[in-house]
Amino acid sequence: MEIKTYQNKNYTNCIFGQKEFSGCVFVNCNLSNVNVENSKFQNVDFIESKLLGLTFNKMRPFLLSFDFEECVINECDFSSLNLSRTKFTKCKLIHNIFENTNLACSDFPDSDLSGTTFVNSDLSKADFSTATNYSFDLRKNKVEGAKFSYSEVIGLLRYFDIEIE
Questions:
Q1: Phi and psi of 58, rounded to 5°?
Q2: CA neighbor of 88 nearest in space, from 104, 64, 70, 114
C-alpha cells in the first residue's frame, strides 16, 4: 500500500467533512482552524505541521490513530478520545485540552506542554520524562506508572495547598 504524503499544503479554514485519511503523512502543512468534524484519521503522521484550533474530539473515533513530530499544536481539543500509544515528539503543545482522554503509554519526548490541560485522563505509563512545562492535578488523572523528570515534577505539586522552599 502506497503512503499518501501531503507536503507544504495550506488547509487553513478548510472543511474535511466526511473525508477519510488512512496511512498518510502531512509534512510541513498548515491545518489551522480546519473543520475535522466526522472525518476519520487512521495511522496518520503529522510532521513539522501547524495544527491550530482543531476539534479532534468531533472526529469519528473508531480506529483513530496518529502521531506528531516537531509540530505546533495550539488550542486543540482531544477530549474523550482513545489516544493510547500516541507519540508527540518535539512538539509545542500549547493550551490544548485532554479531558477524559486515554493517553496510556503515550510519549511526549522533548515536547513543551505549556498551558495544556489534562482532566480525568488516563496517563498511566505515559512518558513525560523529557517533556517540559506540564502541570496538572494528579488527583484528577490516572498516573500509575507514568514517567516524569525530576526538574519538571514541581509542576505537578502546584495543585496542592503546599509551600515549597
A1: -100, 5
A2: 70
